[in-house]
Predict the 3D structure of the following.
Amino acid sequence: MTALKSRAFTVVRALFKIGLLSCFALGALLVLGQLAGVVAQRPEWVTGASELFFVPTIAAAAAFGVLGFIGNYLRPGAGGPEEE
């Protein structure tokens, strides 16, 4: 069972890193798009960036959080209820 847990942790850790990068990139695109709209005084850019990037950013953040939660339980040496 330990080998399976270690393998699952490796996969979850890789997905966690991808989730972190995607969450950061989408959030940056959202903010930069809105900032460009404010600077250029184009309100349609602000709402367009929000409509385009808001939901994917929230989904990436939620997936990132769930993967972090799962990874915490799978990490080697993590004391579960049976190990404490």
Summary: Residues 12 and 71 are 6 Å apart (CA to CA). The mean pLDDT is 89. The first helix runs from residue 2 to 39. Helices lie at 2-39, 43-74.
